[in-house]
């Protein structure tokens, strides 16, 4: 870890990537390798493979920028090579104006944005700590068969007056649920939202941030004038476009997914301050860091009683969950004047939120290094980083609590 760092040329970086992917990573799609090949869609690298790639680059003395990991699945080989060589892109990517961190909440908020004139950001309150799953094998997950979204449905109704119907019937079987989906699409009209769970892995035409198999995900589906084409609105990844209906049926029918909701936005109204306050108080835990605590338990288990090598799989879905920390930004925006008097303070908080997200990625990388036979120093570093991140997150919560108190004292 203390070897001098190496900055290759872009051409040399491409060859280094070729060697790692064809060698230790054993990438099964090397026939597609080339400067314009995308790491996720073309080469099939999921978040675990990308983490492993970062480790091999690190062992070669090459630093991969922290933010590159977030965008890696959609990067081309040449784009990543340029980043490794320290070459700035000709046209830097603009920051998204609306951060998406949870597919169910993003779909709900899409309706509010379509309606217009409604601030959707209160719907993200508490999502920074939302639904962390650790199973019996001490594996972290963002999805489980017994997870329901009643909490979000309940608050969607209380905040914005929208009733959500759960139409998917797990006892009915896949064919019956597909028939129900088709009925809902046949009855579709503007202002109606049909939201099935699909497995994104079976939609190769859709780049996604994590490229995982399986990848359960909620999206909004609408009919088009062509019965063989459906319109997919993937609010969480800020994408919409036509998809063959047969592909979406296949992604819906896969046994890895089961779920579906529907709602209308006709009765939608802005959230009342007292309801925003109630949701914040119900979800806010100022001294708790459940995700960090879960990671600590998982790493402890796999460094003691459970196979160390299983730790890599146990943390596979951490990137999907870590991005939820950006929900803090939505909360700050709900309680302050972020484009006016609070601009500088907001930017400072955003820097800390980004550091929290980046720190979770760094913990993930170091834990994978330990799982792959790393030293006790790697394990020690993981726990030290987790302690630092816990302090950082509690500090972010303290700032948010101050903004909330000021908002409430000033008459909301």
Automatic annotation (TrEMBL):
It holds the Pfam family PP-binding. It comes from the Bacteria. PROSITE patterns: CARRIER (PS50075). Residues 11-88 form the Carrier domain. This is Carrier domain-containing protein. It comes from Paracoccus alkanivorans. The lineage of its organism: Bacteria, Pseudomonadati, Pseudomonadota, Alphaproteobacteria, Rhodobacterales.
């Amino acid at each position: 870890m203390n070897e001098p760092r190496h900055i290759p040329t872009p051409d040399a970086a491409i060859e280094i990537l070729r060697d790692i992917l064809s060698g230790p990573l054993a990438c099964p799609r090397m026939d597609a390798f080339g400067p314009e090949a995308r790491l996720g869609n073309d080469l099939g690298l999921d978040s675990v493979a990308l983490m492993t790639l970062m480790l091999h680059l690190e062992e070669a003395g090459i630093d991969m920028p922290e933010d590159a990991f977030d965008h890696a699945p959609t990067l081309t080989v040449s784009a990543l090579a340029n980043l490794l060589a320290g070459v700035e892109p000709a046209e830097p990517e603009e920051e998204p104006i609306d951060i998406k961190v949870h597919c169910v909440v993003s779909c709900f908020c899409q309706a509010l944005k379509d309606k217009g004139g409604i601030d959707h950001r209160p719907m993200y309150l508490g999502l920074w700590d939302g639904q962390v799953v650790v199973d019996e094998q001490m594996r972290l997950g963002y999805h489980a068969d017994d997870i329901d979204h009643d909490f979000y449905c309940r608050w969607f109704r209380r905040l914005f007056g929208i009733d959500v119907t759960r139409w998917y019937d797990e006892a009915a079987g896949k064919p019956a649920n597909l028939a129900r989906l088709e009925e809902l699409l046949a009855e579709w009209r503007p202002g109606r939202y049909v939201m099935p769970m699909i497995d994104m892995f079976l939609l190769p035409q859709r780049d996604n941030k994590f490229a995982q198999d399986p990848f359960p995900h909620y999206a909004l589906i609408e009919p088009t004038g062509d019965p063989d084409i459906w319109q997919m609105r993937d609010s969480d990844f800020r994408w919409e476009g036509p998809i063959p209906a047969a592909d979406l049926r296949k992604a819906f029918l896969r046994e890895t997914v089961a779920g579906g909701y529907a709602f209308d936005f006709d009765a939608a109204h802005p959230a009342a301050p007292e309801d925003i306050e109630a949701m914040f108080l119900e979800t806010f835990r100022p001294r708790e860091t459940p995700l960090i605590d879960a990671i600590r338990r998982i790493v402890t288990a796999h460094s003691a009683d459970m196979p160390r090598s299983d730790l890599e799989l146990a943390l596979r879905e951490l990137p999907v969950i870590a991005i939820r920390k950006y929900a803090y930004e939505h909360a700050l925006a709900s309680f302050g004047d972020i484009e006016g008097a609070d601009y500088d303070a907001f930017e400072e908080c955003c820097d800390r939120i980004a550091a929290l997200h980046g720190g979770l990625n760094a913990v993930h990388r170091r834990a994978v290094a330990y799982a792959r036979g790393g030293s006790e120093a790697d394990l020690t570093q993981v726990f030290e980083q987790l302690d630092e991140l816990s302090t950082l997150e509690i500090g972010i919560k303290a700032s948010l609590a101050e903004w909330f108190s000021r908002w409430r004292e000033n008459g909301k």
